[in-house]
């Protein structure tokens, strides 16, 4: 039970866990030892009390702790302050591989939400993807796993609906997939550049991937979807 409690402490914010984690663990260990010596149902009451109180404490600390992600968003148009903010961000946030994978989710959720592939399985997948888009974006921005400049970027595959509305659905799906895959490379380059504190290279990665996606899609539309 002590090891399980130790695992639960990892749900607290990292800064809080480093400051109070040992103390919380010590208090729980003493309470559990006293309950074992007392016998009866004391152990059950100790465990139930922690099960009831710990989730509320974890949520409270996450809401109370200022998010570095939001600080980074507010300074995004000021290169100096933006790059000063990034090194302060926890390793599991902006620029990490976790952030890279999470920031890809809106792009791919948009893709799956508008695939328009017939069949009950794909219709369920589209519905799930559609309803996940907004929560994923909100959480990713709040946690600092993505920045506001990735939002319009994630919408880009949707422009295929406007510019290539007259082509058949299977070819349109191919163009969306080609565009999404190319933009994925841009997001990966963007996040890994932030990890190295190179904001100019990060934005250049997005720009080059967007231009490349447009060129690839235009070429594919003319040569394979004519």
Can you describe this structure in just a few lines?
Helix content is 77%, strand content 0%. It is mainly α and 226 residues long. It has 2 domains: 2-64, no CATH class; 68-224, no CATH class.
Describe how the helices and strands are arranged:
Elements: H1 2-8, H2 14-38, H3 42-64, H4 68-74, H5 79-85, H6 97-113, H7 120-143, H8 150-155, H9 159-163, H10 169-195, H11 199-224
Helix pairs in contact: 2-3, 6-7, 6-10, 10-11
Report, as a whole number of angstroms, the end-to-end distance. 65 Å
Largest sheet: none
Helix proportion of residues, in percent? over 70%
Q: What is the domain total for the residues?
A: 2
Mean pLDDT: 77
Tell me the Rg in angstroms.
23 Å
Gross geometry: elongated
Structural class by SSE content: mainly alpha
Helix and strand pattern: HHHHHHHHHHH
Provide an overview of this structure.
The chain has eleven helices and no strands. Helix 2 runs antiparallel to helix 3, helix 6 packs antiparallel against helix 7 and helix 10 runs antiparallel to helix 11. With 226 residues, the chain is mainly alpha-helical.
Q: What distinguishing features does this structure have?
A:
mainly alpha; elongated; 11 helices; 2 domains
């Amino acid at each position: 039970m002590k090891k399980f409690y130790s695992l639960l402490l990892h749900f607290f914010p990292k800064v809080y866990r480093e400051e109070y984690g040992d103390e919380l663990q010590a208090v729980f260990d003493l309470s559990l030892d006293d309950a074992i010596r007392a016998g009866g149902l004391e152990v059950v009451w100790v465990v139930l009390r922690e099960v009831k109180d710990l989730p509320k404490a974890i949520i409270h600390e996450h809401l109370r702790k200022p998010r570095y992600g939001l600080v980074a968003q507010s300074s995004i148009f000021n290169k100096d302050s933006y790059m000063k903010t990034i090194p302060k961000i926890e390793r599991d946030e902006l620029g990490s591989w976790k952030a890279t994978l999470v920031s890809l989710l809106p792009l791919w959720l948009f893709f799956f939400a508008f695939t328009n592939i017939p069949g009950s399985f794909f219709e369920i997948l589209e519905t799930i993807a559609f309803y996940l888009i907004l929560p994923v974006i909100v959480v990713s921005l709040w946690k600092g796993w993505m920045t506001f400049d990735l939002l319009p970027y994630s919408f880009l595959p949707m422009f295929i609906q406007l510019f290539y509305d007259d082509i058949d659905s299977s070819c349109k799906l191919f163009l969306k997939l080609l565009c999404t895959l190319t933009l994925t490379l841009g997001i990966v380059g963007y996040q890994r550049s932030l990890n190295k504190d190179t904001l100019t290279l990060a934005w250049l990665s997005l720009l080059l991937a967007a231009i490349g996606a447009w060129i690839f899609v235009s070429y594919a539309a003319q040569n394979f979807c004519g």
